[in-house]
Amino acid sequence: FYMSRISIRMLIHQHTLLFEPEADKDTRRIGMIDPNCRVKSVIMEAFQNAAFLCEEYYDYAPDFEIKGQTMQTNAKGKKVGLSLVYPPPHLYHILFELFKNSMRATLEIHGKSHKLPVIEVLVAKGEHD
Question: pTM value?
Answer without folding.
Answer: 0.83
